[in-house]
Amino acid sequence: MKLTLIPFSILCILFLNSGSAADNTILVQSTTSTKNSGFYDYILPKFQAETGIIVNVVAVGTGAAIKNARNCDADILLVHSPEHEKRFVADGYAKKRYDVMYNDFVIVGPGNDPSELGDMQDVTLAFEKIALTGTKFASRSDNSGTHSKELSIWREARLNPEAGSGKWYFETGSGMGTTLNTAVGMNAYTLVDRASWHSFSNKHDFRIILEGDKRLFNPYSIMLISKLKCPGVKSKEGQLFIEWLISDKGQNEISRFTIDGRQVFNTKRG
Hints:
This protein has helices at about 10-15, 30-35, 40-50, 60-70, 80-90, 125-135, 145-155, 175-185, 195-200, 235-245, 250-255; strands spanning about 25-30, 55-60, 75-80, 100-110, 135-140, 170, 190-195, 205-210, 215-225, 260, 260-265. The protein is an alpha/beta fold. The strands form two sheets. Strands 1, 2, 3, 4, 5, 6, 7, 8 and 9 form a nine-stranded mixed beta sheet that branches. Strand 5, helix 7 and strand 6 (about 170) form a beta-alpha-beta unit. Helix 10 (about 235-245) packs across helix 11 (about 250-255). The N and C termini lie far apart (about 45 Å). About 40% of the residues are buried. The model is unreliable at about 1-5 (pLDDT under 50).
């Protein structure tokens, strides 16, 4: 008897499509940068076409995304704050963090660069100069991955920006889009991930002032929520999504995503 081998991808589609549409839907708690940049609009149709799995995304700050995942309102968590992610795994809400992609943070500000940060290579020294000169700085102050990165820089500089709250340090308590608009409106510097900056349309004369410091590295990780903590998690479908994203094909697709011709996220493969 001659056996016919069926490709794995076809088996996945046959298996997943054997259930109801609801069975083929997973929920991802994620960051605003991935959603607002258009990344999911680009990548999810490719995954759905191959597997039949529909992926719904809730885009909030990393802190809120992790809180929602802890409340079992997710199958998958995709965020960009290693410190919080490691705690999430240590607390048993996921078994493993998978590196999926990365980009970087940048300092943006008015075109005339009032604190003259443009020639600086050290982000800590740049933050020190902002504080010492009392130049306006807009902070998300929302427990997001971007806010966590900002706070880590202030700590390294051994400065407490809240001492300047309302004078030169302005806490928006909002997402990246609102914070960028606030910064533009008051001619203030701010810290932003590169994806959000490229997709932001209200730049006026604002530009990237400082980039390239290795401390501005911005990795994104993806995790499957543990069934031990959240019994309703769709582990098979969720794990398939993870494996697709970190596969050669998924990584190549991520590398091809661009905004105005510029690559937004990098991977180990591209």
